[in-house]
Each structure stands twice: as C-alpha cells, then as structure tokens.
Design brief:
The structure holds three protein chains of three kinds. By secondary structure, chain A is an all-alpha fold. Chain A folds into two domains: 1-67; 72-337, no CATH class. Helices cover 69% and strands 0% of the residues of chain A. Chain A has 14 helices and no strands. Chain A has helices at 4-41, 57-67, 78-94, 113-121, 124-134, 138-169, 174-179, 186-189, 191-208, 220-223, 233-259, 271-278, 282-301, 309-337. Chain B is α/β, with parallel strands linked by helices. Chain B is built from three helices and seven strands, in the order H-E-E-H-E-E-E-E-H-E. Chain B has helices at 3-13, 35-44, 103-114, and strands at 18-20, 26-30, 52-60, 64-72, 79-87, 92-94, 117-119. In chain B, the strands form two sheets. A five-stranded mixed beta sheet of chain B has the order 1-2-5-4-3, with helices on one face. Chain B has a two-stranded parallel sheet with strand order 6-7. In chain B, a hairpin with a 5-residue loop joins strand 1 and strand 2 (26-30). The longest helix of chain B has 12 residues, at 103-114. Chain C has one domain: Cytochrome-c3 Hydrogenase, chain B (Orthogonal Bundle). Chain C has helices at 53-57, 65-69, 77-92, 98-126, 131-151, 173-196, 199-205, 213-218, 223-227, 235-238, 259-281, 335-341, 343-347, 352-362, 366-370; strands at 13-17, 29-35, 38-45, 160-161, 164-165, 302-309, 314-321, 329-333. In chain C, the strands form three sheets. Chain C has a three-stranded antiparallel beta sheet with strand order 1-2-3. A three-stranded antiparallel beta sheet of chain C has the order 6-7-8. A two-stranded antiparallel ribbon of chain C has the order 4-5. The longest helix of chain C is centred in the first third of the chain and has 29 residues, at 98-126. Classes of the chains: A mainly alpha, B alpha/beta, C alpha+beta. The B-C interface holds B 22-25, 51-55, 57, 59-60, 68, 70, 74, 77, 100-102, 104-106, 109, 127-130, 138-139, 151-152 and C 45-47, 50, 52, 54-55, 59-60, 90, 215, 217-220, 222, 231-233, 238, 302-305, 307, 314, 316, 318, 320, 328-329, 331, 333, 337-338, 340-342, 345, 370.
Chain lengths: 341, 152, 371
C-alpha cells in the first residue's frame, strides 16, 4: 500500500491542499489588512460590519465575487481572455514552493531556490500581457504594455539586489541562505551595501507587483482599471488574489534574504541572548518579518502619488540599475575580502 | 481710458460705429460686415489693447438676433461692449476665434443654441447638444419642444 | 514627432475618456488622440448634464432664478448666488445692508476654502495619492456643518436673496468659524507635508500642462488657472464687490504657468481666504440682514452685468431685462467653460498621465461647464 509512488502521491495531495488553503487564507487576510491599514492612514474605520470587527468582510466579498457573472466581452480572444487569470494564479502558487515558512518547513528544498523564484516570477508579465491583449480594449492594452515595460525593467534591479545576498552566501539554496544568517541577519552583517540593495529590492518588487506608486498597469485615474478593465466576477478575483499573493511572496523573499527568514534575531556569539530569542517559534519570526514588509509596501501605496511612465523607466534605467550594478561590485569585494561580520 | 477717450479712439477706427452709454460700460453698435476688421483693430491697437473677450453671447429679440461681445483690456482695465444686429432668418457673422481663442468654444455654443453661422470658424460643430440637433436652436424664443419643455 | 502633434493620422490610438471615467469628476467626455503615450489632440464633448439653466431662468422670476444657479458650480454655490443677487441689486439699485455684505464675504470665503479642499483631495487622487482625499474632507466637513447650521443646506445653500440674506446668522456661527480657523491653520501645513513637498508629486506637476500668459488671456482662463500663468485676474481685487475693498488680502500670482503653479495658487489662496475671514469675523456689524424690497421684483429695461470671483474663476452674470418680472435673456459666463477650452493647447505633447494632472489643476466642475 505505502510504496514510494503512493507516498509521493499522498504527499503531493497534502501539499496541494495546503497551498490552496494558504492561498485562500492569505488572500482573505491580506485584503482585510490592506483595507484596515488604508482606513487607519485615512482617518476612517474601515470594514467593521461583517463578523467580529469586520473580520469576515473579505469572505463576504469573495462570496459576492463567486456568484457574480463572469463576463467575457464579445470582441475578445476568448481562450486567452479566460486563460490569463489562471496563469496569474498558477505563477503565484508556483512561487510558494521554495519558501521556508518555518524551521525545516518548506515544500521543496531545491538547490537553486533563488534562481527558481526569479525565473518563475518573470512569467507573471505574460498573464498581464495576455489579459490586456485578449480584452480587446484600449485601456487594457495600454495597461498591459505599461506593465510589460515596467516588470521587465524592474526585474533587473530586483535580480541584482538578490544576487548581492547570493554572492555573500555563496549559495542559491534558500536553506543555506537562512543558515548563513544564524549569527546575524544580512541586513546587519553586510554593512551599507546590503542596506542599499535591500532598499532597491523593496522599490523593485513594489514595481514588479504593480503596487502604488508604481501601479501604472492599473492606474485607476488614467486607465480606469488597466489590464483587468474587462474582467469581472471570479476572473477578476483571481487577478486580485494573485496580486496580494505576489506581494506576500516578494515580502517573504525579502524577509528570507535580508532579514533571515525564520531565523530568530541572533547577535554574533551572545549565546544567552540567542537562546532567549530561540524560544519564539520560528514561524512567528518568519510571518512577523514578512508582514512587516507587507505593511511597508501598503504604507507606500497609501502615501505616495503615482509616477508617470517615463519617470518610472527613468528611475529604473538611470538610477536603480547603475546603483545596483555598482553595489553588486562592492558586495563582491566585501565577500572576497571577508569584510562582512 | 475713460469712455470719452474710448469714443474718440473708436470713431477713428470705425467711423460708422454708434455709441450707447446707458449701461455700465460703453456700448458700440456695429454692422456685422465691419466686425472682423474692427475686431482685429480693437485687439491690436496699442492704446486700446482689448485682449480679453470675457463674454460672448447672443440675444434673440424675435425680430433680429443681437451678438454681444464683452471686451476688456488686461493692461488698461477698460471694458467695452460690442453689439451687432443679425438678420433673424440668415444670421451670419465673421468668427473672431483666431483673435480671441476663447471664442472657439463660445461661438460653437452660440451656433448650436441660436443657429448663428460663424464664417471661417475652424471647427463649427455642436458642442453641448447631442448629434441630431443640427438646425434646432433651443435658446431661440420660438423654440418649441413638447416633450422636454414644461411651460410654467 | 513634434510636428505631428495636433494632426490625426491613420494608426493613431483614439481613446474616449469619459463620460464615465474616474478622472473626469463628472460626465465630461474627452476624445483623445494618442501616439503611444503622447497626446496629440484632446477634443472635449460636453453637454451630458446640460440643463439649459439660461433658458430655465427666462421663465423664473428674479427671486426664483437664484436658486437654480446653485446647481451650476455646485462647489461655489454661495458665490454663484452672490453674482446673481448682485446683478439684480444693481438693476434694482438696492443698497445692501453692511451686515449682509460682510456675512456674504465670510460665506464666500468659506465656500472658497471648501471648494479648494475638495479640489485638493480630488486632484491628489487623480495623480494616485488616495489619502489626501479623506484628510481634505475631514476639514471640509467642518465648513459644511457651519453652512448647514446657518443656511440649512450643505451644498446648494440658497442663502442669498436680492437685497441681502434669507435669514440671520446662527448664534454659534462666529464661535464655530473661529474654531475652524484655528483648526485649519494647523491642517494646511499638514497638507503641505503630505503632498506639496513630495518629490514624486513635484515631478508629476512641474513643467506639465504649460499655459502661457498670452494663451491664458486669449482663452479667457481666469481664477487660479489664469493666475498660475501670471495673469492678474482676481475680480475681488480688480472690480471689488461687497466689502472686498475694505479687507486686506493679496492676489496670488505664480508665473510658471504649469500644473505646479496652479496648484500653489490654490494652496496659497486658501491661506488668503483665512486671512479675509479673520479680519471680518469679529467685525460683523449689527443691523438688518436684508434690505426692504418689494415682494415682486421688476428690473428696469436695460442690461446688467456683474462679475464675481468664484473658486474657479470669473463668473459673469449678464441679465437683459425688458422691464418684466422675469429676465428676458440671462447669460452665465462660467469660468469652467473657458478654462476647459485651453485644455487642448495645454495637453498636446504631454503624456496620458499628465492629462489627468492638468484636468485636476484646472479644477473642472462639469455642471459649471455645461450649465
């Protein structure tokens, strides 16, 4: 009965169910969190009617979206139009695989985890382009084109800032990267260059996930809703969900690379202090850091005005990319000369 | 410039102008055919410099239409009013949209509301009314619309 | 590339912005010709809420027609009413009591602040910052409460009648206005911190939507849109009405002519409005709030024109009277209509994102344009 094939199948099913479960739970939590953070910054209350303290608001929204008619416009390319939201969601799900949620708790411990993440996250742009093109709507097309230019550009800086940690660790494996931070997180150990690459990483991933102030692909006041103008019902919800899951994942990656993932706050060889820190479960460390970064990204959204498309590309190609290239050089020198702590 | 000075200056520019000082500002009645050259002079004459057309409208007096142009100078701060009687059945006057650009919109409004034909207007189309209202001019006194108008 | 701007060729992308669009704040319809993201031409199509107020007024008496004008530029309802009341008073040659004049000026300036606050929030939302909207509305709500108490309405107040005011002030009026002034003085610095100094905001606004002084005059752009181009056009200064000649305030001029200049004019104008209110709020003279007028008003045969400064610019009311109880012809020279006509000139060569910033800083109120 329990031969390796069956064991593998059961394992796969459990993994699949938990990923989908996590996916749904995260979607609900993040949407609620966004609305509460927004309300807090905008001196209002936010959702407070459905369920205790409005906790079930996003569940109610999901039910509403589920029972809504999923319209497909007449002039659209029906196959691509319907496929696009699923690709967006699949990409978000695939990215879950190498993330370490707690100590020894991950779906797939592969030796090229970081490379896998950068590779898979580039597919996201395809779903957006697909949605924009298939909608047969000028607003959608413009949103998709903006988003294409934006994601492809910002991937460079994001990739280069991830590379700084890979250079310091000497490994693409996420477990190795986390273990290398047992005596302190990279953001503290790596001097100013790692700090710079952390800032660039946060800016770049905000742009990559199409979040304000880089939300040109949606740009409500210019393009009504950008690439998902024509989507409604559950198909829209999938895009919406994928956006939040992507935010979670990039923040998780940021937390893993720069803030030590599930690794508790350790300082060098202060054994006693490190032991006290170890009493806090590793999952709390991981989610705490991730949600802190998510909060930062939400904070951006509700504070900054949107950039214009040419300013967006200027920022990347004229500032962030040269800085991160030079920064990578600096980090390499630090790694070779062992100047980091 | 006060009204007397304005009158002397304007008589120089257009001897056929008829003045009327009953209102707040100096009113000048002119023939529609004189309007284009006169308007150019009003705008470009250095001592007048009437560069600001702050109101352009039309009045339906049932027997004739009257175009009313309120002009002001941003330099000297004097205001004058130009009036021109148009034939009711064939209202036509030269456009001044190349002299005062605000007239592009205002003349389009008068065109659709009163049916005044502005000659040499760059873009004389309906502005406010939807398609299909060409030739029906709601601001005229004899306009009847049994569906949309409620008589008080 | 540049010489192509303004012409339409095959292959250009033509986009309908509106009549239902988040950035038009109403039912404005713009047909935009684009080359990539660059705007080649903007063509406004109006009339989606045209109610023909001018025609309506022809069948309303001089007491009645003022109420309709609250629905034109609904954000400066008081100031519209003021223009009409002034025009009728000019025709009737009625002397308005000093008390009514002072109260009118205070109300006008409160309206101006409320209108600029709504503009500030909505404009920030246009360029992608959502939070300012709520902050602006928090203070605007205070003004609305003051208005509601005295006038009985929050938006279309109809407080002015020919000859003065409809009713006297609420006893709490002075106290509440003073409380508001203290509050607002702190908050306006907060606005500056939140948006004005933001680097993204400045980059979005600076050099965008340039309107030269010559074009501003030629297009008849008035109000903050004209003053942002260095055109001195504040009616309160040039042709003072009510008690504006007795109070100290500055006409705000910026010479850059871009969106940032128009933005700064409005922000600084709010501070001037506060200054005017501060001078008047403790000096409201005692006396009648309304002059004695006949129950049925009849204007003598003739023409009457008044100009006032609304939050958007110069509003002209032109009444042609034949001596009857109703106006023979009435024309509202609305500021938004003229300001909108400059949009095409401003937008050409800009990016699609700039158009939103330009429309924001022109402060278009669609009922004011359509009338």
């Amino acid at each position: 009965m329990f031969n390796p094939t069956w064991a593998m199948t059961i394992e796969m099913v459990i993994a699949g169910v938990s990923v989908i479960g996590l996916f749904a739970a995260l979607g609900l939590v993040l949407v609620l969190m966004e609305r509460r953070v927004a309300a807090w910054m905008q001196i209002r209350l936010g959702p407070n009617r459905v369920g205790p303290k409005g906790m079930l608001q996003s569940l109610a929204d999901t039910v509403k979206l589920l029972v809504k008619e999923g319209m497909t416009p007449d002039g659209s390319d029906k196959f691509l139009f319907n496929l696009a939201p699923y690709i967006a969601m699949m990409v978000a799900m695939l990215l879950m695989a190498p993330i370490a949620f707690a100590k020894d708790f991950r779906l797939w411990d592969m030796n090229i985890g970081v490379l896998y993440i950068t590779a898979i996250s580039s597919i996201m742009v395809i779903s957006i382009l697909m949605a924009g093109w298939a909608s047969n709507n000028k607003y959608s097309l413009m949103g998709a084109m903006r988003s294409g230019a934006q994601i492809v550009s910002y991937e460079l800086s994001a990739g280069l800032s991830i590379l700084t940690i890979v250079v310091l660790t000497g490994s693409l494996n996420i477990t190795d990267i986390i273990n290398a931070q047992a005596d302190g997180w990279w953001i503290f150990k790596g001097h100013i260059p790692v700090l710079i690459s952390f800032v660039i990483f946060i800016i770049a991933v905000t742009a990559e996930t199409n979040r304000a102030p880089f939300d040109l692909a949606e740009a409500e006041s210019e393009l009504t809703a950008g690439f998902h103008t024509e989507y409604s019902g559950m198909k829209f919800a999938l895009f919406f969900l994928a956006e939040y899951i992507n935010v979670f994942i990039v923040c998780a990656i940021g937390a893993t690379l720069f803030l030590g993932g599930w690794m508790p706050f350790h300082i060098g060889n202060w054994e006693a202090f490190n032991h006290v820190m170890d009493y806090i479960p590793s999952s709390i460390w991981f989610f705490g850091k991730t949600f802190f970064l998510i909060f930062v990204i939400m904070w951006f959204r509700w504070t900054f005005p949107r950039l214009r498309i040419d300013q967006l590309l200027n920022l990347e190609w004229k500032y962030l990319l040269p800085i991160s290239m030079f920064n990578l050089l600096l980090v390499t020198a630090i790694a070779i000369l062992k100047w980091h702590f | 410039m006060n009204n007397e000075e304005l009158k002397t200056k304007i008589t120089e520019l257009l001897p056929s102008a008829i003045f009327d000082e009953t209102g707040e500002w100096l009113n000048i009645n002119i023939e529609p055919t004189d309007w284009l050259t006169f308007a150019g002079k009003l705008r470009n004459e250095d001592s007048l410099f009437l560069d600001y057309l702050f109101c352009l409208t039309c009045i339906d007096f049932k027997t004739h239409l009257t175009m009313v142009y309120h002009l002001s100078s941003t330099k000297f701060r004097h205001n004058i009013v130009i009036k021109s009687k148009l034939d009711f059945n064939n209202p036509e006057i030269e456009s001044v949209s190349h002299i005062w650009k605000t007239a592009i919109f205002h003349e389009r409004e008068v065109y659709e509301m009163f049916g005044v034909n502005f000659l040499n207007h760059p873009d004389l189309r309906l502005l406010i009314l939807p398609d299909g209202w060409e030739g029906k001019n709601p601001m005229l006194k004899n306009f009847e619309d049994p569906v949309n108008m409620i008589k008080l | 590339m540049l010489e192509e701007i303004g012409t339409t060729t095959e292959g250009d992308l033509i986009i309908n912005v509106g009549p239902q669009h988040p950035a038009t704040h109403g039912v404005l319809h713009l047909v935009i010709t684009l080359n990539g993201e660059t705007i080649k031409k903007v063509e406004p199509h109006l009339g989606y809420i045209h109610r023909s107020i001018e025609k309506m007024c022809e069948s309303l008496t001089y007491r009645q027609f003022i109420y309709v004008t609250s629905r034109m530029d609904y954000l400066s309802a008081h100031i519209n009413n003021h223009a009409c009341a002034l025009c009728v008073e000019k025709g009737m040659q009625v002397e308005v009591p000093e008390r009514a004049q002072v109260i009118r000026v205070i109300m006008d300036e409160l309206t101006r602040i409320a209108s600029h606050e709504l503009w500030w929030g909505a404009m920030a939302m246009d360029i992608g910052a959502f939070t300012p909207f709520f902050h602006a509305f928090r203070e605007r709500e205070k003004i609305n409460e003051i208005m509601e108490e005295t006038c009985g309405a929050r938006l279309t107040m109809n407080y002015y009648v020919p000859g003065g005011l409809m009713a006297d002030l609420h006893p709490d009026f002075q106290k509440k206005v003073k409380a508001f002034i203290t509050l607002f003085k702190n908050k306006i610095d907060e606005y500056d911190e939140l948006i004005t100094g933001n680097i993204i905001f400045i980059n979005r606004m600076k050099g965008v939507g340039f309107l030269s002084k010559e074009d501003a005059v030629s297009f008849g752009c008035t109000g903050p849109s004209g003053r942002g181009s260095g055109l001195s056009c504040d009616i309160r200064k040039l042709y003072p009405y009510a008690v504006y000649d007795k109070v100290q305030f500055d006409e705000i001029l910026e010479t850059d002519g871009d969106s940032l200049a128009r933005y700064m004019v409005r922000i600084r104008e709010m501070k001037q409005s506060i200054r005017i209110i501060e001078q008047l709020i403790d000096n409201i003279p005692e006396g009648d709030f309304q002059a004695k007028t006949k129950a049925v008003l009849k204007l003598p045969k003739g023409e009457f024109y008044t100009r006032v400064e609304t939050a958007r610019g110069e509003l002209g009311v032109y009444i042609v009277s034949e001596g009857a109880t109703t106006p023979y012809r009435i024309k509202f020279r609305s500021p938004g209509f003229s300001n909108l006509s400059a949009l095409d000139t401003m937008a050409r060569g800009g990016k699609l994102g700039d158009l939103v910033a330009m429309m924001g800083t022109l402060d278009l109120v669609i009922p004011d344009i359509d009338r």
